[in-house]
Amino acid sequence: MNSFSEQLRAAGDEIWQQIHEHPFVVGMGDGTLEAERFAYYMVQDYLYLIEYCRLFALAATKSADLQTMGKFAELLHATLHVEMDLHRQYAAEFGLTPRDLETASIAPTAHAYSRHLLHTVQNGTIAEMITAILPCQWGYHEIAVRLKERGGLDNGSRYTAWVAMYASDEFKSLSDWLRGWLDDIAEDFTAAERRRLTELYLTGSRYEWMFWDMSYKMETWPV
Ligand SMILES: Cc1ncc(CN)c(N)n1
């Protein structure tokens, strides 16, 4: 029998196939993505990650034991000092300072997705919290590993650093921890809880697709 996290991934398979085939993701993999679309993504992802850090801080305060608190602190630290450092380096290539990133205005989809996550972590159970985070943490690793398998590290483009970071073992170990934790507590879930968590996972996965699409289209507020 598949683990609960594997069942979630299977339920979202159609969405994840569409993510792998999205022109933004494909373009990062073969190096053909236009720089201006990537620069837009970097800024929006930075704004998203600021809220993502806040979410880990919130999750730490809601943790029942020190080990869990420490793990969320580790996720916060890795996001703030490793993942966002990649963004700061890319931004510098585009002539943007960290202050430019922080003071940019957030686009509709990035706003909606980050607020969805914050709402879930603020109001949800531990299981809901982990399930909401899973598409972000696990999904990026899956994307990067696929791009790496298809030569995404060898095309000489500016996107190889992105692929290398998200395909790394360090990034994998944090998503493995989240998955393992969810699988450990899944035995006690009722059928209704499983359905609710599956919906939550699918919502996050849809937002992941929407984030790529937002970046490809360089979305702005309509009015
Ligand atoms: C939208 C999004 N989702 C996930 C990740 C990986 N932390 C990210 N940087 N941005």
UniProtKB/TrEMBL annotation:
The active site is at 208 (proton donor). It is an enzyme of class 3 (hydrolase). The keyword Isomerase does not apply. Its EC number is 3.5.99.2. Keywords: Hydrolase, Thiamine biosynthesis. One of its GO terms (cellular component) is cytosol. SUPFAM superfamilies: Heme oxygenase-like (SSF48613). One of its GO terms (biological process) is thiamine biosynthetic process. GO terms for molecular function: thiaminase activity. Pfam families: TENA_THI-4. InterPro entries: Haem_Oase-like_multi-hlx, TenA_E, Thiaminase-2/PQQC, Thiaminase_II, Thiamine_Salvage_TenA. Pathway: Cofactor biosynthesis; thiamine diphosphate biosynthesis. Residues 13-217 form the Thiaminase-2/PQQC domain. It catalyses: 4-amino-5-aminomethyl-2-methylpyrimidine + H2O = 4-amino-5-hydroxymethyl-2-methylpyrimidine + NH4(+); thiamine + H2O = 5-(2-hydroxyethyl)-4-methylthiazole + 4-amino-5-hydroxymethyl-2-methylpyrimidine + H(+). Homotetramer. Catalyzes an amino-pyrimidine hydrolysis reaction at the C5' of the pyrimidine moiety of thiamine compounds, a reaction that is part of a thiamine salvage pathway. Thus, catalyzes the conversion of 4-amino-5-aminomethyl-2-methylpyrimidine to 4-amino-5-hydroxymethyl-2-methylpyrimidine (HMP). Belongs to the TenA family. This is Aminopyrimidine aminohydrolase. It comes from Tumebacillus avium. The lineage of its organism: Bacteria, Bacillati, Bacillota, Bacilli, Bacillales.
